[in-house]
Amino acid sequence: MRVVEKYQGAVIVITGEYDENAGLIAISKGAQDYLLKGKYTVENLERSIRHSIERRDIQERARKNKQLFETLVAELPHRVLLKDRNSVFVYGNEKYGNTLTI
Question: What are 40-72's pLDDT values in tens digits?
């Protein structure tokens, strides 16, 4: 699984015939999909490749957008504090952090 964690491409894991758990672990480590050995068709493999590439591209765009957001917010001259939908604070820029006293 170390290969999956470090590889930047779209990763599809082919597990043992009855080892669905290994596929789920691979996905938790960064693989985009898994197939059970001997249980997939050419059509399934083609679909898996297409979807895995799409998912990898979406993940990469999300990572870049998050990085851009954090850079922009960090440079703002104002304090910024963000909450999620459940009103839990999830982000505060450095300017906000400097106003807190502990």
Answer: 999 999 999 999 999 889 989 999 999 998 888
Eight-class DSSP state of 36: E
Q: Does pTM top 0.70 for this prediction?
A: no
Superfamily of domain 2-76: Response regulator (3.40.50.2300)
pLDDT tens, position by position, 21-30? 999 998 998 8
DSSP the chain: -HHHHH--S--EEEE-TT-HHHHHHHHHTT-SEEEETTS--HHHHHHHHHHHHHHHHHHHHHHHHHHHHHHHHHH-SS--EEE-TTS-EEEE-HHHHTT---
